[in-house]
Specification:
Elements (H helix, E strand, L loop, with lengths): L6 E7 L32 E5 L8 H4 L2 E3 L19 E5 L3 E5 L5 E5 L5 E5 L30 E8 L5 E5 L5 H8 L17 E6 L8 E6 L26 E7 H8 L4 H22 L1 H4 L2 E7 L6 H13 L5 E3 L8 H13 L7 H9 L4
Parallel strand pairs: 1-3, 2-4, 9-11, 9-12, 12-13, 13-14
Antiparallel strand pairs: 1-8, 2-7, 5-6, 5-8, 10-11
The structure holds guanosine-5'-triphosphate (GTP) and magnesium ion (MG).
The site of guanosine-5'-triphosphate has 26 residues, from helix 2.
Length: 366
């Protein structure tokens, strides 16, 4: 999958207005014709519009300046100069434009039909015919055109995933996304294998045209991530627009810590791990931590079935009654997980998620 670029800085400039013209009528047998300088044309505007075929800001790494042409100067015989043509900068849905210096939001293109004027072209200057008065019939001046505007913008695009995977490093997030989607992230037996978010498109059903949703696999979180430990929490901004999170518990880590004799201990450890990360999510963003979560106890393949059932019961006693037992690697419990996700996303309260789908398709992930 292509590396996801979600930030770019570009300079945009609207056109200057063309100057008004100083000219006089020249007619046979009329020695002193009146003023006839035409108006300058308006400079081109720079607009931003959503293009549903775009999914990343990659193009802006190659082209960083967008300039609309100037209006042409006015001409004699009261002929106006032509306007500069407008430039439309096409961006993916969900792109946010910020002032690169102050960070202030200039525009949010989260509306599918968004088309926003960002730099207005300068007005054309008036030709000298506008300035004739009864006492001053032959003005030898005209108005200059107004200058265009220049802005340096930071473009930001959040990954518009429907479902976010959270968990400790090594919990098996990348393995899971690789089993349920076509994404092929790096998977390895060490912490912080995933350094940048991966997107995967999950199809419900096998037929072409059956519904899909987008899952984001992000780097692992650890205690203190909100203070910058590990890879920090910066990447969590990619989960801000998800509908729900799947919180993966690392069953292998708990086995190592507690052994396989006391289901209550393992359950306690699982709840502890979940709550540690919930606290990190909450420090990063209370809104993110209040999102609905599906709790999945992963690496179930390493456990004896009966023991695992006991773990589930013990977790229920601790207030977590709805835990899915899964294994990404061994493909255990994945269909029930996908069913749950599909019901939530496509059920009666399900949202329309055109944002994410459009993006992912264009990104070639599907
Ligand atoms: N036994 C078992 N091992 C698994 C399972 N899922 C993942 N693993 C192993 O766990 C290790 C970590 O897997 P990853 O998928 O890279 O974990 P991650 O959560 O993406 O890790 P980070 O990217 O570091 O946050 C790898 O060695 C995987 O093979 C599972 O269901 N069962
Ligand atoms: Mg990973």
């Amino acid at each position: 999958m292509a590396r996801f670029i979600d930030e770019a800085t570009i300079t945009i400039r609207s056109g200057n207005g063309g100057a008004g013209c100083v000219a006089f009528r020249r007619e046979k047998y009329v020695p002193r014709g009146g003023p006839a300088g035409g108006d300058g044309g308006k400079g081109g505007d720079v607009w931003f519009a959503v293009d549903h075929n775009l999914a990343t800001l990659l193009d802006f790494r190659y082209r960083r300046a967008y300039e609309a042409p100037n209006g042409k100067p006015g001409q004699g015989s009261n002929k106006a100069g032509p306007d500069g043509e407008d430039v439309v900068v096409c961006v993916p849905l969900g792109t946010i434009l910020k002032n690169a210096e102050t960070g202030e939001i200039v525009a949010d293109l989260s509306d599918p039909g968004a088309r926003i004027l960002i730099c207005k072209g300068g007005r054309g200057g008036k030709g000298n015919s506008h300035f004739a008065t009864s006492t001053h019939q032959a003005p030898k001046f005209a108005q200059p055109g107004e200058p265009g505007e220049e802005k340096v913008l930071k473009l930001e695009l959040k990954l518009l995933a429907d479902v976010g995977l959270v968990g400790y490093p090594n919990a098996g997030k990348s393995t899971l996304i690789s089993k349920i989607s076509a994404a092929r992230p790096k998977i390895a037996d060490y912490a912080f294998t995933t350094l940048t978010p991966n997107l995967g498109v999950v199809r419900i059903g096998k037929e072409v045209g059956s519904p899909t949703f987008v899952v984001a696999d992000v780097p692992g979180l650890i205690e203190g991530a909100s203070l910058g430990r590990g890879l920090g929490t910066k990447f969590l901004k990619h989960l801000e627009r998800t509908v729900l999170l799947v919180h993966l518990i690392d069953g292998a880590k708990l086995l190592k810590e507690f052994g396989a004799d006391d289901a209550a201990e393992i359950a306690k450890g699982a709840v502890r791990d979940k709550e540690i990360l919930d606290a990190e999510l909450n420090t990063f963003s209370p809104e993110l931590s209040s999102k609905e979560q599906i709790l999945a106890f992963n690496k179930a393949d390493l456990y004896d079935d009966r023991f695992l059932e006991d773990v589930r019961k013990e977790m229920g006693k601790l207030g977590y009654k709805d835990v899915l037992l899964i294994s990404g690697a061994a493909h255990i419990g994945l269909d029930p997980l996908l069913d749950r996700l599909a019901k939530r996303l496509f059920g009666p309260d399900g949202l329309k998620r055109t944002h994410a789908q459009v993006q992912a398709t264009a990104d070639g992930v599907a």
